[in-house]
Amino acid sequence: MSETTLQQVDNYRETSQLIREISTSLTEDQLSWKPAPEKWSVKEVVAHLVDSSFVHSVRIRKIVAEQAQGFILYDQDAWVASSRANESSFEEILLAFDAILAYNARYYERLKPEQWEHKGLNNGKEVSAADLFQGFIRHVNIHLAQIQRNLDALPAALR
């Protein structure tokens, strides 16, 4: 594994810590607040990251092990809605996220350089395991920014 990839795995692994730093002083009301009915709360964003980590875990393993021709697709909004994350403890959601991050990070560290080049199809577009990994890191960063936007938009009554 290249030094760059090792650093990216470390960055991936630190994602949960970033979420903890952002949310450490938040109340349950702040964590559950939604900027609009169709938008996600902080809890829902993190629950989505757990869901997408599970899906990503299967996708990357199918590419590496099977050089799969199609990705597992899912309806993220339906998954978030059915999770009822706002009824969960934020700490429980973070513990699940920690576990899947640690499990996937160990997997990435064991991949051989040629396995990063294995390819699969995502909506008809060919992507490598490395592309999928990079895409997931971008995905997490998008949601970290979403969490910050939620916090910035909190109504005065919740601040």
TrEMBL record:
Organism of provenance: Paenibacillus alba
TM spans, by residue?
none
Q: Where on the tree of life does the source sit, at the highest rank?
A: Bacteria
InterPro entries linked: DinB-like (IPR024775), DinB/YfiT-like (IPR034660)
According to the entry, every stretch annotated as the DinB-like domain falls at: 13-147
Q: What is this protein called?
A: DinB family protein
Q: One Pfam family of this protein, by short name? A: DinB_2
